[in-house]
């Protein structure tokens, strides 16, 4: 009898060692060798980037396979052995978790749990309850918190909008050294594949964005709308070091899946990525390090919004706001502290309606056209040149041009979250349809026989 198995895993890595996507890439090879059939690309699911205990990308993985019932024990043992070999158990914040979920489809309750883990903060006990309810199996190491991400990866079936990422890995002997990528070839690739790939190069600085920093085993990651295009893009990029292996993942990168739209500011909670509308209360203030802070309000509450220096154009736009502007802000919510209130760290801002910016000027002299001087409050105006006086003349209102458009502003690509939808993806969102993806034949590097 054939069984369907969803293998979720999370949190095997630490800032100094490993990468859960690499464990998934190794598993792809080992499970393929065992003879399982993959029913989907490996899913790379980014969870709420604002949960307090996660400082990195907060990505969880799910492998979805079909195999003979008699192979299940071998599959489970292969998974657990590999995770135990590759997890950084010594790091305090690393709490690996694995979930084995059986069945062709994933129940609505588990999909709802995934949505909460992407948009909000969920508890280990809720994950454990679902695991028991649906007869799944979970292995949690240390605190067991990794079960949350593992189950969420199972539950996020990416049936709505989704994207692809081809990740190529380095030889372990090269990890920790400078990545050798030909920047010119990345720009050529960007031009050849736009708009179907995204976040290859930072348009503001020209910096290559497909390579991460740090000691992890990822050489590069190319993001795009389908599996063919990321493979084509990968074939264009020239690397100055060997690629150990590569895999195409299906992901929620660049989909804004983390943002939950709220109808009133009073509903804003800490640690949640949100979208909310409000009216700017007054001109923004600039705080040290050139951050811009402003407040918005509606009938229910008032909240601060912060645009940090690296957000580029978004920060420049925020600086131009005035009281009365109507905006829709998107971003993660930082809890209030003693010195500052609840604050939205801006990822995006849509200017919905600009307020009129009015300035008041003294009138011109009707006799000689010189600008007149005020004789004091409600005392009228006097011309210094010809001596004409008038109590009837009033200040003139002038509507000033605004250096801001009723438009969408997004943080610069180099400071975007994995989940932030970039400009290039607008209009390319995929509809809710589980059948929209098909697996191409070459979705991972050829299996090297000599390793077995
Ligand atoms: Zn005059």
Question: How does this model look, in words?
Answer:
The chain is α+β, with helices and mostly antiparallel strands. It has eight helices and 23 strands. Strands 1, 2, 3, 4, 5, 6, 7, 8, 9 and 10 form a ten-stranded mixed β-sheet that branches. Strands 12-14-15-17-16 form a five-stranded mixed beta barrel. Strands 19-20-21 form a three-stranded antiparallel β-sheet, with no helix packed on it. A hairpin with a 6-residue loop joins β19 and β20 (381-382). α1 runs antiparallel to α2, α3 packs across α5 and α4 crosses α5. The mean pLDDT is 92. Zinc ion binds at residues 365, 367-368, 370, 383, 385-386, 388.
In a nutshell, what does this entry contain?
With 452 residues, the protein is of the alpha+beta class. The chain has helices at residues 20-34, 72-86, 108-119, 124-133, 146-155, 183-193, 227-236, 313-319; strands at residues 2-10, 37-38, 43-46, 59-68, 97-102, 137-140, 163-170, 197-198, 218-224, 243-251, 260-261, 273-280, 285-287, 291-297, 302-307, 326-334, 343-353, 357-361, 373-374, 381-382, 389-390, 396-400, 408-410.
Which molecules are bound besides the chains?
zinc ion
Q: Any low-confidence stretches, pLDDT <50, length ≥5?
A: none
What's the story with the biggest beta sheet?
Answer: 10 strands, mixed
Structural class: alpha+beta
* Radius of gyration, whole Å: 27 Å
List keywords for this structure.
28% strand; five-stranded mixed barrel; 452 residues; elongated; alpha+beta; ten-stranded mixed beta sheet; binds zinc ion
